[in-house]
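I hope you will forgive my troubling you with a question about protein structure. The matter concerns a single protein, recorded as an amino acid sequence and a row of backbone structure tokens. Please examine both parts with care and let me know of anything in them that strikes you as inconsistent. Thank you for your consideration; the sequence and its tokens are set out here:
***
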Amino acid sequence: MAAKKLLIVESPAKAGTIKKYLGKDYTVMASMGHIIDLPKSQLGFDTENNFEPKYITIRGKGTLLNQLKKEAKKADIVYLATDPDREGEAISWHLARALNIDRNSKCRVTFNEITKSAVKAAIKEPRPIDMDLVNAQQARRVLDRIVGYKISPILWEKVKKGLSAGRVQSVATKLICDREEEIENFIPKEYWSIEALLTEPKSKKDFMAKYYGENGKEVALNNAQEAKAVSDDVKKAEFLVQKVKRGQQKRNPQPPFTTSTLQQDASRKYNFQAAKTMQIAQTLYEGINLGGKIGSIGLITYMRTDSLRIADDAQKEAVEYLTETYGKEYVNPKQYKTKKNAQDAHEAIRPTSINIVPISIKDNLTNDQYRLYKLIWERFAASQMSSAIYDTMQVTLDANGHTFKASGTSVRFKGYTMVYEEPTDEKEKKSKMLPNIEESEKVNLKQIEEKQHFTQPPARYSDATLIKELEEKGIGRPSTYAPTISTIVSRGYVVRSKKQFVPTELGFVTTDIMKNNFSDIVDVEFTAGMEEELDSVEEGSTEWKKVLNEFYPPFEENLEKAQKNIEKIKIKDEESDVICEKCGRKMVYKLSKFGKFLACPGYPECKNTKAIREGTGVECPKCGGEILVKKSRKGKVYYGCEHLLKCDFMAWDAPVKGEKCPQCGGLLLKKVGRKGKIFCYNENCSYERKPERDKE
């Protein structure tokens, strides 16, 4: 009789996918993430007793733990198959202790992708629980607890309730505040450019050349007078081609995605917030039902990784597919060098099979799943392809001692850009090759234009640039970027404005407190050094409690000083123009975990609150009320009538203000996006058109 086996994973979706791969002898259950953790209501470890943690069963997980114990007793073998990272290793360790499984026995199973072959191969090679990984998680968890649970109460007392400090979040907030100060202190400098539209006489083709300097040396134009003097001088001059330089330029493909580069690209291309990217990636990893013979399968490898390594089998499959699809000249298989301190046990993020082409499974995915899978698939495919090659041409011209330069490119060999285009590739599309110009040739001036410019301050951080900055500075790890951003937004330290982060007064106040009292916590180099120490725990070269014993004494001293030195700070709420109908005061903006709302400043005498009304200025086609901008429970924007209880008008597309349908006089709607079509709300009317830029 075959042995009964229990396999425990973290999520029900993953359990459902894996169950289909294993026979009737396997029971597959989900732990629903952590089942045992430090208590929320207290610090959870003894600082006097070498930081010994006091773990408890998480509230509400007792029934599930009992079910797991019951199934574990029935099973001959129990496999712990939680996620393949520090957090997953810790969950398996807690489960092993709760289910009386020897951690040194071969009970731990890890797979980087959820496919039938990968799961079955992993089960054939179980291993003991890796205590170095567990201890790295314990050290990180306790360290974050110390910072959060010790500093946050001071912020509650001195500033306002509900605030928090954190080892990574406080540094992220400081970076955003520092950038805002740079922007505020920035003094723009004027400069000018000159563009000459020239014509090559033989071909009659036009091309653009830019002013460079005088007699081959670069010169800056600082004001209108300097620019006009050059412009007036060259209007009367001959443009003589001094030098023509032809060459070739190679552009190499990017490596496959890591967690941070995936979040950056999804932010740039689709405006996905980091948390949304990770949520979609999780569903692609855990399994999608493709129907037919394939059934349920994980479409991508594990999405929390900073490794660039690619499995040999995956690379071989990619070479075969790309050779057959594009030809061998387009294929150049390579392994990319992973940066220092990366968790190389994982692979880069890639499709589990390159043969599952995005378009072939589009109908099985949501639109967002499709877009993210396509991005991952294309980046991986491109990483194994040949470089793109461009013909380049640079021309230097002289006009009465004034030097102008022109450049152009054209694609000689598309290489990896057949599959994946980066922002720089988009620019190349618009850059054309210059006419066939020869040295000593004279070209004709068609038009000259002077342009005024001002130097720009550094841009505010977006999801993509903040994640890039945190990664480059060694702050946090792949799994921390998305929750860090979510935390600093939900706490009200920063707000999003046009896809960028703007610090609030609260953000500045808390950052100043941290800088003045806990300078190490918000010091980039100190925090990066701490990450390296935690990595050394994972490598087994540092004892985890030693890290805590070195950190805590100076931190405790700072705590005592801060408690005495920080004075109570009153942050004034932003006032609105809305009058409280109950007491006549001007209402103020408040922040909750659900977003901004209006509240009466007369609390507790007056407890009036109301949602912020965002009108469109467009009349409801059903009842004549105003159409308002609203949000669904999941935060998706839609448009509904102000008379919510009486009128059922609702649309996902934006109403067009100041314009009626020219065919039927009805309401016009515009699809989301700059190029979204404009169409009539009336189902019986067929009117639609492209948006006009001037009306936009």
